[in-house]
Design a protein that fits this description.
It contains 1 helix and 14 strands; from the N terminus they run αββββββββββββββ. The protein is mainly β. It has one domain: Porin (Beta Barrel), CATH 2.40.160.40. The chain has a 14-stranded antiparallel β-barrel. It is globular and about 45 Å long.
């Protein structure tokens, strides 16, 4: 993949253009809080990655949500992986009783991908999804297989907490690879939120079968959040990765 001479300068420029464009397109869709202040429509996330075999990596991601849906732009760099990639995407939910969520992703190097998910239910809910790519190189930062089907279900407790489980399994090049998530979200102190995501994964890595457990812990304040994650054999490679993320909504 092509190395960029000044990746962080290019990232800053792209994020600035994206922010100005999103403000122009999304301005009419800003929500108002009860006190008349605008709710945050942007989310900026900075992540550091520590790979067990490949050194360090870094990622910056900016998301914007409006009546147009959610758009994002980001950049990932890891010298040990010879990885330098810009990415962008869009998703939006349609419907109420049955919710349909299409998404599109593009990235430098010619990558194009997309997914379609369907969910129904309010207190109790179930869903399914399918993802497809053009198989060009892509540094997958959601860490679940992209060319895959998924199933999910959960329960939303009155008062804000929720329990959910999901299974994502590759159904194209590596049908042995799958992730199972168990996620718990709960309000804390009225305005904060705690999310615990437990991961069980199995599949082939360099010809050998693995069965590993990982976890992600996220704490959200109204405007800021911090996330700590451990993903063994990330993206079904030899690397175990620890990720630390900090972010803000504005």
């Amino acid at each position: 993949m092509k190395n960029f001479a000044s990746p962080w300068l290019q990232t800053t420029f792209c994020l600035t253009v994206f922010t100005l464009t999103a403000l122009a397109l999304g301005g009419p869709g800003l929500a108002l809080a009860a006190d008349g202040a605008e709710d945050p429509t942007f989310k900026l996330t900075l992540t550091g990655h520590r790979f067990s075999e490949s050194g360090n990596g870094a990622d910056i991601n900016l998301r914007h949500t409006s009546d147009w849906g959610t758009q994002w732009l980001g950049y990932f760099s890891a010298r040990g992986l010879d990885a330098h990639q810009f990415r962008g995407g869009w998703e939006r939910s349609f419907g109420d009783t049955v919710r349909v969520l299409p998404s599109v992703q593009v990235a430098s190097g010619g990558f194009v991908g997309g997914s379609l998910s369907v969910e129904t239910g309010k207190t109790w809910f179930v869903g399914a999804g399918l993802g497809r790519t053009n198989l060009r190189p892509y540094y997958n930062l959601n860490f679940d297989p992209n060319d895959a089907w998924s199933l999910g279900a959960g329960y939303r407790v009155p008062g804000g907490a929720s329990y959910s489980v999901s299974l994502t399994r590759d159904n194209r090049e590596n049908p042995d690879q799958q992730h199972f998530h168990a996620v718990y979200r709960t309000p804390v102190n009225g305005q904060d939120r705690l999310t615990i995501d437990l991961l069980y994964k199995q599949g082939l890595v360099n010809g050998e079968g693995i069965r590993k457990v990982g976890a992600t812990l996220t704490y959200d304040w109204p405007r800021y959040f911090v996330r700590l994650a451990y993903d063994p054999n990330t993206n079904f490679t030899a690397d175990n990765v620890v990720r630390v993320s900090v972010g803000t909504r504005f």
